[in-house]
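Thread: quick sanity check before group meeting

JM: Hey all, I'm pulling together slides for Thursday and realized we never actually wrote out the predicted structure for the chain we discussed last week. Dropping the sequence here so it's in one place. If anyone has concerns about the input, flag it before I start.
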Amino acid sequence: MKKVSENEMSYRDGDSGVKYMLRGPNIDWGIMLLKPHSKMGGHYHEQVEETFYFMEGSGFMVVNDQKYEAKQGDAFLIEPKEKHDVENPTDKPLKVLFIKTPYLPKDKVKY
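JM (edit): ok, ran it. Output follows.
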């Protein structure tokens, strides 16, 4: 058993970005906070599937260059090799939970 607290962890970029909560041995998951008018950064995975759950705010889930509206409570399952990005075009922060499986931290290809 392992217990972590979001409040005791930091975002990669200090006040925004990715905050990994648990990594391995089978899943990789965390929270992403996007500042207003920012993007996650487009990429895809060769073997990993990734789920995004929109916790706070609204924006867009971009999959294979198609934009889908995303609001609080929405979830998206991204299959391996599907290009994806998250965009926050609003004036408010966007908070998204993500889960990746299997745990393959090097399986990321930017585009």
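AS: nice. The CA atoms of residues 84 and 92 lie 21 Å apart. The first strand starts at residue 17 and ends at 23.
JM: adding both to the slides.
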